[in-house]
Amino acid sequence: MTLRRSILSLLIFSLAGVPALSACGSDDGDTLPDAGTRPDAGPPPDAGTGFDAGTEVDAGTESDAGTEPDAGITPDAGTTPDAGTEPDAGTTPDAGSEPDAGSEPDAGSEPDAGTEPDAGSEPDAGTEPDAGTSADAGTDLSTTCEGTCQDTAVTARMYENQVVLNHAYFGYAGPENAGDPWMLWIELSNGATDECPSDTSPTPPQIATLEFVKVPVDTTPETGSTGGRPSSVVFDFDGALMPQIAVRSTGLTFTPVAASICPSCIEAGTFPAKHFVAFDVNATYANGTVSGHGYATYCPSMNTL
């Protein structure tokens, strides 16, 4: 590759709940047969004191007083079991609560309530996979980039230091194997002059490379992590940003905004009148970040074919 052989060398070098009866007697002993005292005196036995005094047994107190057992309290008082409370009171089981109350299973809640599975939430709710969020979230890539879209303002922060990278360039990297996609190699810098990087151009104070970015076909973001693709490397050639000369990214998100690119045009040698890629980048490093918007123009000197 003709792109900054010295930078490529640096990349290689830097690269995580009864009564009783009574008798009467006389005081004369000679008057016994005709005194009339006995047997016709008459007091006993019809004095009426006992048996026929009416006190017992026919006084009516017992057992025909009517208190027991025909008093009507028990067992025909009507309280139990014919009081009507149980089991014909109508409470259970024919009260209508269960199982014919209509709550279950014919209440209509389940399974015919319409919540599941015909509620329309899943899988026909339209949220997944046809909601358009993933993986078809990317919209068509515009080929127009005007105004601030053409500005490059990417901030590199390391430790407590930061610099703004205001230039961006890109070149193509051919497929490594048949069927592999074309890649872009992008370089951001803060050089004094706005010219394509080359072996002979001045080395800028700081450079951030965006490596192995697939040639975009829509606005779907590309992400990479440690040891993956795409990735980035920040170089600090004057020590104003960090103590080390180079550091590789731990995470990277590259989001295409607009582009007018044509890898197949390389062989023919005829390119679009405006040959560019506009993007947003957010990269993380062990001690910093690189983020912002870039507008990179094509530089043949950055191609790796």
Class based on secondary structure composition and strand pairing: mainly beta
Largest sheet geometry: 11 strands, mixed
Q: What is the straight-line distance between the termini?
A: 8 Å
Tell me, rounded to a whole number, the average pLDDT: 72
Tally of strands:
11
Which word captures the global form? globular
Count of helical stretches: 3
Rg (C-alpha, Å):
58 Å
Strand portion:
25-35%
Write a structural description:
Helix content is 6%, strand content 26%. With 305 residues, the chain is mainly beta. The chain has a domain at 139-302. The longest helix is centred in the N-terminal third of the chain and has 10 residues, at 5-14. Residues 23-144 are annotated as: Disordered. This is Lipoprotein. Keywords: Signal.
TL;DR?
With 305 residues, the protein is mainly β.
Q: What are the salient characteristics of this protein?
A:
305 residues; mainly beta; 3 helices; 11 strands; globular; signal; Lipoprotein
How are the elements arranged and paired?
Layout lengths: L4 H10 L28 H4 L106 E6 L2 E5 L1 E7 L9 E7 L16 E9 L7 E4 L5 E6 L9 E3 L2 E10 L4 H4 L7 E10 L2 E11 L7
Parallel strand pairs: 3-11
Antiparallel strand pairs: 1-2, 1-11, 3-4, 4-5, 5-7, 6-9, 7-8, 9-10, 10-11
